[in-house]
Write a structure and sequence with these properties.
The complex is a heterodimer of chains A (384) and B (212).
Chain A (H helix, E strand, L loop, with lengths): L4 H9 L19 E2 H11 L6 E4 L4 E3 L2 H6 L4 E4 L10 E4 L2 E3 L5 E3 L10 E4 L9 H6 L14 H11 L3 E5 L6 H7 L1 H10 L1 H26 L6 E5 L12 H23 L5 E5 L8 H6 L4 E3 L10 H8 L4 E6 L4 H4 L2 H15 L5 E5 L9 H13 L4
Parallel strand pairs in A: 4-9, 9-10, 10-11, 11-12, 12-13, 13-14
Antiparallel strand pairs in A: 1-3, 2-3, 5-6, 6-7, 7-8
Chain B lengths: L1 H10 L3 H13 L4 H22 L4 H24 L7 E6 L7 H12 L3 E4 L6 H10 L4 E5 L6 H17 L5 E5 L5 H6 L4 E2 L3 H11 L3
Parallel strand pairs in B: 1-2, 1-3, 3-4, 4-5
Classes of the chains: A alpha/beta (384), B alpha/beta (212).
């Protein structure tokens, strides 16, 4: 048979071996490349198409179609349009207030130019049910969120048969950190669980309503993958207790999100969950709530050795990512990158269940030769 | 017995109880160093050990540090008046070009909890500012943090500038580094004196520099 891009991705997600390893680049905001890295790559490849940012806040690019074609990329990104009604605004080039009332900032000197949250509506004082309830929440049915989605899907369909990856930003943890502050949110898990759970529910409502708005615009039958997620791990372990905290407070919301998008696509779409760091102790929970794939598989974090992950979870979970961004991709030679890519494909890709991508976004200092080496190794990697 | 209550209150993350119990001990005339070392530092050490083992997590560490702070707020002026010296002075910050501070802040809390005097310069810190702060505060240690792989060259440069100042500018500090992309090999390669894999091990490294 002749394999289409979409066939390849779906085979991997169904734990079957395609003709070659499927490849993602730019399917979502955490599987792409930083704006600075992208400029280097464009120059190296001789690409002059103007850069289209995927997110100014995360300082990442939408790779141009000609680059995706050159690298044999099997996915294409779709994401919500911009919220309408003027809730968000720029203060200056380095300060932005989003639709949740969160202030994002960067400095001119930032190496990678991405923004971090510096203030939010619940940063000060104690979090209360009344304050969360009284907040002016954005609406996931805002028509701006659907804008351009139908056209983007039609454009992808017209150009070829790629797997459509719908990226739905946000969740209940990271947006919560942004609104409440990282440390306060984590302490509220113990000290103010009632108010914090209401905050989570408001964020979950917004996400699920957004999913409904965007999936309706895309056409439920066109969506192959829903990509979302948030970090549960750190480099060296779990951010919070996987059982006492994750199971009790966060997992029910994540379950609702997964079930919502599966319901909206009549069970057809696969769910890819993004979780940086050491995800190991959370993986059984994610499998239980219906997650099909895990990104970015941070192989340098604790308990994240690819051999171990494949042996323990490979029959139930597809791994998406895994090419070492903390060591080999930035600091290795193209030959080392190719060898590492082959190794990861051999380990994680056995019997399908693997989609090639770097661990998180390709950073600014990664030599373009190494990016090319990673993708070319993937394209050449035949299963049969 | 009452010292054990302070220890227990830190372990239970009860900052109000810690403040109350510490004040009661102070009023009863207990040596402030005993309250600090046996009540609070001992508790935070145990929290750190459990964190490194993976049986406690970030929220618990934050809450324990907050409970500890409630006690430290009472003890600090008394410790200053008693003429007791801090364990050591640490200048802490995230290197130039990097705005990430979650890990750095955890390290700062644990260092303060271990009795160090902490001067936190924040994020995106110029190497010269570390040196100036170290000179002004007669510091023992400069601790550099970074999350981005792109800021690793900044860290290398900052270590080189500080070590150069140690040789030529009458500075006498140890330099330690940490952050997700950093490991012992990188720390050795760039000439750092020490490395902390996580916040509790950063405290261990700092302690080794001031020989306690």
């Amino acid at each position: 048979m002749t394999w289409t891009h979409r066939d390849r991705i779906l085979a991997a997600l169904n734990h079957e071996e395609p003709d070659r390893v499927p490849i993602d680049f730019g399917g979502a905001e955490f599987t792409t490349i930083t704006l600075a890295g992208y400029e280097r790559l464009k120059k190296y490849l001789g690409v002059t198409t103007p850069t289209e940012p995927m997110s100014i806040i995360h300082s990442v690019a939408h790779p141009a179609e000609e680059i995706l074609e050159r690298f044999g990329v099997d996915t294409r990104n779709v994401q919500p349009g911009a919220y309408e009604g003027g809730r968000d605004h720029w203060i200056d080039d380095n300060s932005y207030v989003d639709i949740f009332g969160v202030l994002w900032k960067r400095t001119e000197k930032d190496v990678d130019q991405h923004f971090l949250h510096k203030d939010g509506p619940f940063y000060e004082g104690k979090l209360t049910v009344e304050a969360v309830d009284a907040h002016d929440w954005p609406d996931g049915r805002n028509p701006g969120l659907a804008k351009g989605v139908k056209e983007r899907v039609a454009e992808i369909k017209a150009k070829g048969d790629h797997a459509i990856c719908l990226y739905l930003p946000g969740g209940v943890i990271h947006r919560g950190y942004a609104m409440r502050g990282f440390e306060a949110y984590l302490k509220d898990l113990y000290k103010r669980p009632e108010a914090l759970q209401l905050l989570m529910d408001k964020l979950c409502d917004f996400w699920c309503d957004t999913a409904e708005t965007v999936i309706a615009a895309a056409g439920p039958e066109n969506v192959d993958i829903i990509y979302f997620g948030e970090d549960l791990g750190t480099q060296d372990g779990c951010m919070f207790d996987p059982d006492a905290i994750y199971s009790r407070y966060l997992k029910p919301r994540h379950r609702r999100m997964v079930e919502t998008v599966k319901g909206l696509t009549n069970g057809k779409a696969k769910v890819c969950f993004h979780c940086c760091g050491s995800a190991y102790h959370f993986i059984p929970h994610l499998i239980e709530i219906g997650v099909d794939a895990l990104n970015p598989v941070q192989v340098t974090a604790k308990d994240m050795q690819p051999e171990r992950l494949k042996a323990e979870f490979g029959d139930k979970l597809t791994f998406w990512g895994g090419i070492n961004t903390q060591r080999i991709l930035p600091f290795g030679t193209p030959d080392e990158v190719a060898a590492e890519t082959r190794h990861i494909i051999d380990v994680l890709g056995k019997g399908g269940g693997y989609i090639l991508n770097s661990v998180h976004n390709i950073q600014a200092e990664v030599p373009p030769e190494n990016i090319v080496a990673m993708f070319e190794t993937g394209v050449k990697h035949a299963y049969h | 017995m009452a010292i054990q209550d302070i220890y227990n209150a830190v372990m239970a993350y009860e900052e109000d109880d810690v403040a109350e119990l510490v004040q009661a001990e102070v009023d009863a005339g207990t040596d402030v160093n005993v309250i600090l070392n046996q009540g609070m530092i001992a508790a935070l050490d145990e929290i750190g050990e459990k964190f490194s083992k993976g049986t406690l997590f970030v929220p618990e560490m934050l809450m324990a540090a907050e409970a500890m702070q409630a006690g430290l707020n009472i003890l600090r002026p008394l410790l200053a008046n008693s003429g007791a010296k801090p364990v050591g002075t640490v200048i802490l910050g995230t290197v130039k070009g990097d705005l990430h501070d979650i890990g750095k802040n955890l390290v700062g809390m644990m260092l303060e909890g271990a009795g160090f005097r902490l001067i936190d310069l924040g994020t995106d810190v110029d190497p010269e500012n570390f040196i100036t702060a170290a000179q002004e505060n007669d510091a023992d240690i400069i601790a550099l943090s970074g999350l981005l792989t792109t800021s690793m060259p900044e860290m290398e440069m900052a270590v080189a500038i500080v070590q150069e100042a140690n040789r030529t500018r009458n500075l006498n500090v140890k330099v330690m580094v940490g952050g997700p992309p950093i490991n012992q090999d990188f720390a050795d390669k760039i000439g750092a004196d020490g490395y902390g894999m996580d916040a509790p091990s950063a405290v261990e490294t700092a302690r080794s520099f001031v020989r306690i």
